[in-house]
Amino acid sequence: MDQKIQNEAFNGYINKLFHSSSWKERAIAAQNLGKLKERRATNMLARALKSEEDAVVVNRIIEAMGEIKDPKATMLIIDFLNEELEKPEEDQDKKRLFVIIESLMKIGDKRALKHLGILLDSCHSDVRKLTEEAFECIDPNWKLNVKSI
Q1: Which residues are CB-contacts of 20 (< 8 A; sequence separation ≥ 6)?
Q2: What are the residue ranges of CATH 1.25.10 in the chain?
């Protein structure tokens, strides 16, 4: 895709993300921004994340941030992780947790490990397993590092 076409696509997705009344269009726009893998989208996605109320769109924005792999998104995604972790475990949104873990894994920022650590004790084996995969991906020596602490 040449630069002009990519810029037009980028601007179109941003426009839909902020101005579409359809949650489906906003979700698809976020997803497409992630597929472009342009770091310049990170700030716009962060802005949209702060005002978006639809859970599906929020998840797509978090996924897009993971696809872009910009470490600037790490702490924003961790805010959503902490929000989920404040809830009793039975009330936590497992889909959101999976999206968060996978996105943080793709970004690969070691700052996420401290926050993901609590999920290693999750009652849900699938959450624990994915969290261990994230640890392995972000820091292959994490078990040794934890033992040394």
Answers
A1: 26, 29
A2: 1-68, 73-149
Task: Determine the Cα–Cα distance for residues 138 and 108; give it in Å rounded to an integer.
Answer: 5
Confidence class for position 1, pLDDT limits 50, 70, 90: low
Q: Assign domain 1-68 to a CATH class.
A: mainly alpha
Between the CA of residue 15 and those of 56, 81, 105, 145, what are the distances in Å? 18, 27, 28, 44
Q: How far is CA 3 from the centre of its chain?
A: 26
The number of residues making up the chain comes to 149
In this structure, what token pair is assigned to residue 67?
Answer: 């696809």
Burial classification of residue 62, based on how many CB atoms lie within 10 Å of its CB (0-12 exposed, 13-18 middle, 19 or more buried):
buried
CA distance 103 to 64: 8
> Is 40 in a helix, a strand, or coil?
coil
Average pLDDT, the chain: 92
| Opening angle at CA 116, ends 113 and 69, nearest 5 | 65
Architecture of domain 73-149: Alpha Horseshoe (1.25)
pLDDT range class, residue 145, cuts 50, 70, 90: low
